[in-house]
Amino acid sequence: MSVSLPRSVVTALWVGCADDAESWLPFAVEAITGTDEPHRTEDEAPLASLLDKLSLHRRAGGTTFSALPVPHEPVGLTGPVGVAAMDAGECVVVDGGPGVGALVAVPDVVAFGSALEPGAMVRWQLHSAQASIVPVSLGEARRMLAEALVIAVDALEAMDVARWRADAAEEIAQLASSRVPPEVADQLPPGLDPRRSDLLVRAARLEAIAELAMADDGAAVTLFAADQRQAALRHVAGAARHAMSAASTFIH
């Protein structure tokens, strides 16, 4: 089971780490695109153009971060941008601070190919909005993730996931590891604070396992037991999303 970061998380990391020169843009485009087809915007501009706009807006001050909303955990974006972010399950927010407003970039992803040779076409929508999102701090995210890890281990052991999903066994064994897999290392900006990369890897691994486990009731013998485990795993996945958002938050 491969572990990767959401496109919006990777984008927020690169925009948050960007300097005033433009030398970072080609590397950011490569890291964000990965194995996708070249990303475009709604007006057919290349991804580098979008990144440049976000970076310029960031220089006004404020905060850059990713948000990963799901239906039972909305974020503080209203109107069409809120709907688009919820549909996509992710977005990048560059909030310029009071009186400036936010730019919100939302990826519209169309997957194609097969499980063996997957591909994706990505078109980014850019919105102007007023954001009322308060990102979780790194310290709070680490605490939440540590608690979620305990819950996850209990739930996964009860479901005996490692037995009935061989592809998850290795990842479960690596839950407490801070080793950055090569596929994630390729997505990260150079010189990223190790505390951020550690949190990102743990969170991405935990969310992937929680999502996989939620697709099956495992060893649950009653509907109540299955519901309890699903609730626990939703909490785990939520903590993982908050952690990835916190690790990609930069206050300028």
For this entry, give a set of tags:
10 helices; 252 residues; single chain; six-stranded mixed beta sheet; alpha+beta
Walk me through what this model shows:
With 252 residues, the protein is α+β, with helices and mostly antiparallel strands. Helix content is 50%, strand content 15%. The chain is built from 10 helices and 6 strands, in the order ααβαβαβββααααααβ. Helix 2 packs across helix 3 (47-58). The longest helix is centred in the last third of the chain and has 25 residues, at 223-247. The protein is globular, with a radius of gyration of 18 Å. The model has no long low-confidence stretch (mean pLDDT 85).
Query: Low-confidence segments, ≥5 residues, pLDDT <50?
Result: none
SS content category: alpha+beta
Q: What share of residues is helical? A: 40-55%
H/E element string?
A: HHEHEHEEEHHHHHHE
Summarize the structure.
With 252 residues, this protein is α+β, with helices and mostly antiparallel strands. It has helices spanning 7-17, 25-33, 47-58, 79-88, 138-159, 161-164, 166-173, 182-185, 194-214, 223-247; strands at residues 40-41, 63-67, 91-95, 102-113, 118-129, 250-251. The mean pLDDT is 85.
